[in-house]
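Here is one chain, start to finish.
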Amino acid sequence: VDHHGLDRLAAAHRQRLGVFLVQPDGKLPWQPWARAKKTYTRDHPFETRAIYDYRIRCLPAGTPRGTFYSYYNGWQIQQPAGQVVIFYEHNHLYRVIRLDGSPHPGPNIQLWMGDSVGRWEGKTLVVDVRNFTGKTWVVGDLGGEGMHTGSFHSPALHVVERFTIVDADNIDYEATIDDPNVFTKPWKLGYRVFSRAPKDYQLFEYACHEGNKTIELMKDLFKR
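Its structure:
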């Protein structure tokens, strides 16, 4: 794999994803110290294991990053009574969105994908997500190789998602990101999150495993 190939993959990812930031200048509103930390991580992605992308270490992607398009991920949505459940092909992830209005747990409970409480507003599922760890990234390119590398957050992260049913085959997505420990103000992103798969589509096992050589291979790649 060459750098140009990675560039093409990243460009195709961005084109398919259609992410936009609802900000006047289209930039994430980092606090100065947080921008410096994020930039250092981007420029030194393999310096220590502590700053490796958690997703390529077989750990959960977080929210909203777990909803980002990739060429090896699909989703399945089920609606049992009082819940919306999302299964992710990537890394066996799942989310249970409670619709019963129950409160979030106390702040000592910290979850990789956050705790999700939802409600319907017409054709839009509004989801309030709290109780995050500080270990995932808010955004990030496919393998942590792009400009968003190191886009961390704190456990104070609060995400409000809006899944809007556009038609029988498409769902749009908007997320408001608020973390007063890292950003100067809340900001938004949005894109077409789900399109209906062919009838014969099925989720396959995502075999992310111990002993995977991704880190070593990417180190060699970025030395070239």
